[in-house]
Amino acid sequence: MTGTGSAPRTPLRTALVGYGLAGSVFHAPLIAATEGLVLDTVVTTNPERRRQASAEFGEALRFAAAPEELWARADELDLVVVASPNKTHVPIARAALEAGLPVVVDKPVAGTAAEARSLAELADARGLLLSVFQNRRWDNDFLTLRSLLAKGELGDVWRFESRFERWRPQLKGGWRESGDPEEIGGLLYDLGSHVVDQALVLFGPVTSVYAETDVRRTGAQTDDDTFLALTHANGVRSHLYASATTAQLGPRFRVLGSRAGYVKYGLDPQEATLREGGRPGNRTPWGQEPESLWGHLGSGESPLTGGGTPVPTLPGAYPDYYTAVSRALHEGTPNPVTAHEAAAALDVLEAARVSAVEGVAVAVERA
Cβ neighbours of residue 340 under 8 Å, at least 6 residues apart? Predict the structure, then answer.
């Protein structure tokens, strides 16, 4: 990355806390692929994960056993990325900010909206970037839908249906499936963080939420089948599904408007590509899907019977998130996903949790 002059800028030394699924599959490869950033340190005590990271990112990569080691040498770092278990997000992010370091935190940034706003206030007071990794804003289908809405292709949107469904009848174990509230597990706060964030980006603030959260699988301790019905301030209604128990998957998006509807099946391919070892730069073109998975735009007929017009799906663009973070730190451009935005999504998730217990629609209190 270059600034106003011709000389390249010094890459920002980035420390990654956690090298599980989020750290190894999403954050490390994207950081390493971003001009203006360099992966400097990984915090993990796991020997196999250390070997894996060194093999991919080189012997110059440093390691730390605990986040506290980073604060002791904060002057050697420029950015901290928190990809550790959910319950650690707030204390690690707070410690990084207090050490004077900008922070990226995986979603959910916190367990409550109040905690998210407290972190945001600390970052604002210190003049530091605090960004939340909402990579699904750069999914191929979401980028395509945003483009269609910007062009007015659907007219006035009346209903937005979004599904993040999987068929995983067997439990995997681990903190994400723990029933301990401190772990912030379950699909409401996991996949729900994504579908709610997307709905807010597309259609704005929410006034009320109705939710159903169920525990379907034998031995499961927390929700694995979740539904949310949101009423937006502008009148749009969003129906959002997050499930690990869906034997027949529905459309990823079904969006109904006054002029047309848009229906799209299939998940963005970027996660699968990253899991398989594909990396930005060695997999070209990045984020593209086959024509057979394109969504359909039209009215009156089902795409399954040939109705509607195929809409080319825009390429997914996860690398754009860290490019935006790099530019924000180098050039002062806007934070791609603020903690204030994440707090607004947590307002919705907290209301959903109350709704699911009480069985009624719950008003969303906005700060």
Answer: 116, 117, 120
Q: Return the number of other C-beta atoms located less than 10 Å from residue 360's C-beta.
A: 11
pLDDT of residue 181: 81
Q: Exposure pattern of 91-129 as b/e (b: 16+ CB <10 Å)?
A: ebbbbbbebebbbbbbbbbbbbbebbbbbbebbeeeebb
Query: Taking the CA atoms of the chain, what radius of gyration do you get in angstroms?
Result: 21
Report the SS3 class of residue 241: strand
Q: What angle do CA 169, 318, 309 make, to 5 degrees?
A: 80
**Structural contact between residues 343 and 325, judged by C-beta atoms closer than 8 angstroms:** no
Closest CA to 30 of 57, 5, 7: 57
Angle at the Cα of 52 (from 49 to 53), degrees rounded to 5?
Answer: 90
Q: What is the pTM of this model?
A: 0.93
Say how far apart CA 206 and CA 112 lie, in whole Å: 17
Q: Is the peptide bond before 285 cis (omega within 30 degrees of 0)?
A: yes
Nearest to 251 by CA among 155, 141, 92, 106: 141
Kindly give, in sequence order, each residue whose CB lies less than 8 Å from that of residue 207, ignoring residues fewer than 6 positions away: 231, 232, 233, 363, 364
Strand-pair category, 237-243 with 130-133: unpaired
- Of 103, 118, 31, nearest to 71 by C-alpha is 103
Cross-strand bridge partners of residue 105:
82, 132
Distance CA 170, CA 180 (A): 19
Burial code (b: 16+ CB inside 10 Å, e: under 16) for 234-270 equals eebbbbbbbbbbbeebebbbbbbbeebbbbbbbbbbb
Predicted pLDDT of residue 222:
85
- Do the beta carbons of residue 328 and residue 334 sit within 8 Å? yes
Residue-wise pLDDT for 37-95, tens only, equals 999 999 999 999 999 999 999 999 999 999 999 999 999 999 999 999 999 999 999 99
- Number of neighbouring beta carbons within 10 Å of residue 361: 15
d(CA 231, CA 203): 10
Q: How long, in residues, is the chain?
A: 367
- In DSSP terms, 231 is beta-bridged to 208, 237
- Written as one letter, the residue type at 84 is S
Q: Which residues are paired to 37 by β-bridges?
A: 12
Amino acid at 238: S
